Amino acid sequence: MQIAERLTKIPPYLFMELRKKIAKAKSDGMDVISLAIGDPVEATPPAVVEELCARARDPQNHRYPTDEEKGMLAFRQEVARWYKERYDVSLDPASEVLGLIGSKEGCHHFVLARINPGDIVLMTDPGYPAYRSSILMGGGEPYNVPILPGNNYLPVLADIPSDVAKRARGMFLNYPNNPTGACATKDFLDDLVAFAKQYDIAVCYDNPYAEILFEGQQRISFLMAEGAKDVGIELNSLSKPFNMCGWRIGMAVGNPDLIAAISKVKENTDSGIFNAIQYAGIYALKNEAAFINQMVGIYTERRELVLSSLRRIGIEFTPPKGTFYLWAPVPRGMTSLEFTDQLFEKTAVVVAAGTAYGRYGEGFVRISLTVPDDRLQKAMDRIVREFKTV
Ligand SMILES: Cc1ncc(COP(=O)(O)O)c(C=O)c1O
After folding, report:
1. Burial of 63 (0-12, 13-18, 19+ CB in 10 A)
2. How close is the Cα of 252 to the center of ligand 1, in Å?
3. Other CB atoms closer than 10 Å to residue 174's CB: what's the count?
4. Which atom of ligand 1 is least distant from the CA of 105?
5. Residue where a domain terminates, one of 232, 253, 288
6. Separation of CA 208 and ligand 1 centre (Å)
7. What is the DSSP letter of 185?
8. Atom of ligand 1 nearest to the CA of 249
9. Total domains, the chain
């Protein structure tokens, strides 16, 4: 069967390829430890699961979701409350909040809602691979903006050629950043708003790691920047802070025109999020902030373990302070792929090659901390044993 041309332009999805590689190695009898995927292994808070179960028993919730594509008003109100409490950002639940089936859905629908065929969409390199796929599926033209260690992995907006900026209709950004862990500054966000205004670029600020921060790093929302609501939206998600990746619930907040446009896309593609999941989401936002601190405590210890193990094999770096990923330089003289391949062959540990996130990811690998402590310890023991320099 012939498939649509738009799909032939899309590179294979990194994690699907990795999953296949891991499954094959496991079926060959290897004890594979994957540090490649960011999917928390600890359970969702039990009370959130209880809330889901109770709500799932109510036949009212077996019908199409309330308010369908927008998300139920109670969920949108709770999101607005959360934004006020966590970021001191005021939102109108009626026009500035939309429930999403995860922030990934928001990335895709942002393109459909804003981008015309042939429009340029700026995205960072390295960057989350789904941006490129969403841009290509929507008929847009991705333009890579490098983010490099020398500028703390923030794009240098002044380096974007003005003819490109003039043709750009959208821009994806994500801080705390997957894969580098870098965090944005308030000054950068102010510059971003000014840049977006100057060129009429709609910003899609993808912020699912907003809460995963270390060493006193302050949490930050794009909407904290003056005028941000005039130029864009922020995507957020319950996946990472509440260990709810599988539940598929998130939100878009910000510019009412974009929210209405994305709502229209959703109206014509899905009928919203299962009510019982929205109730569970409300419960998590209302009651489980302490759970986030607990998880960050766990990630802090794992982060230390990985950093100290890497030091023992001669890899030393100061990591940025966000996300549950470590973006580590590979040993001198090796490419990212050579190192990941060697690591896999010698230790059966899988990490993601930096180049999977773009060509400026060369020289790095991404290590995820979302694995059980004992497995991480085992992975590090194997790595130290095989790669120790002294
Ligand atoms: C930058 C970024 N955006 C979006 C997502 C998807 O999040 P969600 O589960 O909310 O769809 C991920 C998941 O890894 C991510 O890293």
Report:
1. exposed
2. 13
3. 26
4. 11
5. 288
6. 6
7. -
8. 10
9. 2
The beta strands (E) that lie in the chain are given as 33-34, 97-100, 120-125, 141-146, 168-173, 202-206, 232-237, 250-254, 325-329, 349-350, 352-353, 364-368
The pocket around ligand 1, CB under 6 angstroms, is made up of 38, 102-104, 128, 174, 178, 206, 208, 237, 239, 245, 250
The span from the CA of 98 to the CA of 71, in Å, is 6
Question: Which residue range forms the structural domain that includes residue 266?
Answer: 46-288
pTM greater than the 0.90 cutoff: yes
Give the residue from 269, 288, 307 where a domain finishes.
288
pLDDT tens track, the chain, 390 positions: 988 988 888 877 667 777 787 888 888 889 999 999 999 999 999 999 999 999 999 999 999 998 877 899 999 999 999 999 999 999 999 999 999 999 999 999 999 999 999 999 999 999 999 999 999 999 999 999 999 999 999 999 999 999 999 999 999 999 999 999 999 999 999 999 999 999 999 999 999 999 999 999 999 999 999 999 999 999 999 999 999 999 999 999 999 999 999 999 999 999 899 999 999 999 999 999 999 999 999 999 999 999 999 999 999 999 999 999 999 999 999 999 999 999 999 999 999 999 999 999 999 999 999 999 999 999 999 999 998 875
The length of the chain in residues reads: 390
User: Do 216 and 330 have their domain in common?
Assistant: no
